[in-house]
Amino acid sequence: MLEVTLVGGPTALIRYGAQRWLTDPTFSEPGEYGGLVKTTGPAVSSDQLGPLDVVLLSHDHHADNLDPAGRELLAEAGRVLTTSLGAERLGAGTTGLDPWAEVQIDGVKVTAVPALHGPPGSEPVTGPVTGFVLEAPGEGRLYVSGDNASVDVVAQIAQRLGPIEVAVLFVGAVQIAHRFGGAYLTLSSERAAIATELLGVRAVIPVHFEGWTHFTQGLDQVRAAFAGYGLSDRLTAVERGQTVSV
Q1: Does 82 reside within a domain?
Q2: pLDDT tens-digit profile of 68-81?
Q3: What is the CATH number of the domain that holds 47?
């Protein structure tokens, strides 16, 4: 059993094992950040979070995954895990992990897994991104996708690290017209449903679908896609500020 609270955008507080994990911190108020427009502030303030053991940061170089207030919060976390290049930029207190690298944190094995933030060949433009798989005795494996748009990447992760019990999938079908002809930069709702089939998980929690103008699909589209694939029973939809147990 794990517990997830959706703060907003890609930011979720996860209770897994004995630790409290936070994904991609975004706590700034609405405004424009790095050319991206944020429309809503956090549903849970950073002051309300309580102590943080680990931040799982998919990447540091896009404001919708780490905005200014989220960047300030990193100093309060016990540990920050991210890409190797991100760790170089963020400095002390940050651990950089290459794909498939592992680290142990208080009885939880964390494996950094690949993520493709756009179509094949987009890496030099969108930069390195990582996902994470968490594993602890007595707990099912948890996959946190980060900004991944590729179902082929998901298939690799499932084959190498499965079985996986629960997945937190970054969705939203992000599209930016001047990049890659509008190709998806994160999972679309349909791709999230396909990823669910590939992973064989019992529960999926979608995040990263609201709060910024470049999201093109929201929770309604996610629900429709999962229904179309006969997977509604595996979808655990979380509203902003809501906490669910799976």
Answers
A1: yes
A2: 999 999 998 989 99
A3: 3.60.15.10
